[in-house]
Amino acid sequence: MALHDRWVQERRHEHYYKLAKKLDYRSRASFKLMQLDDRFGIFREGSSVVDLGASPGGWLQVARERVGERGKVVGVDLRPIRPIEGVETIVGDITDAGTMAELLRRFGGRADAVLSDMAPNIAGHYSTDHARSVELCMFAVDVCDRILKRDGACVMKVFMGDMADSLLRELERRFQHVKVTSPDASRDTSSEVYVVCKGFKASVEPRPMEDKASEAKKPEFTVKGGFV
Ligand SMILES: C[S@@+](CC[C@H](N)C(=O)[O-])C[C@H]1O[C@@H](n2cnc3c(N)ncnc32)[C@H](O)[C@@H]1O
Q1: Do residues 117 and 59 make contact, with C-beta atoms less than 8 angstroms apart?
Q2: pTM for this structure?
């Protein structure tokens, strides 16, 4: 990255970091979601929302503010999340059938929006990080198939790369509108983008739930590049 670009990136990073501290948000990522919602209209008063990869809780805070007291917000993460008033959380791995079952049980109905800011542990090897990010997105797609209302919305983060096309195709099968975007607050890594999907068609049958020990822990989608 050129020196000037890095300087701009660091200033942006610092700006949102300070703003998050000042306004009491748990992460800079809060501003990414606000900007996406301002532009694409994800939330409505009273909406029900599932947030995957929710720790430390910045997106949960924004979702809660925007859906209000009549809304429902449930967050899932590998790591515990400090309590947020009006928000339920589940500690677990969403690729694990037990966590998925717990989410369905706890949510107890259909969601208006599924969010995923999930990120893999960064290996520092570009194609590995990209493949893991796409894999997590495929699990978010799986959550949509199980829980999203017809016409619902989904926002997911993905590290771009050659497998992204397959992910976008899966999303286009399921949603009327699919848009890849990069909110101002997220322009700090060149490969990170957000896919905003609206108008869920409820057209794909959810795959059967697999046992945790089963080989078929991975989603059934076929991704260009050999990942299945
Ligand atoms: C960038 S952080 C999310 C930040 C969050 N949106 C916020 O605003 O505070 C990514 C999160 O994804 C979680 N994550 C990664 N893989 C996951 C999985 N398989 N199941 C659940 N959470 C996962 C990580 O533990 C991490 O907390």
Answers
A1: yes
A2: 0.89
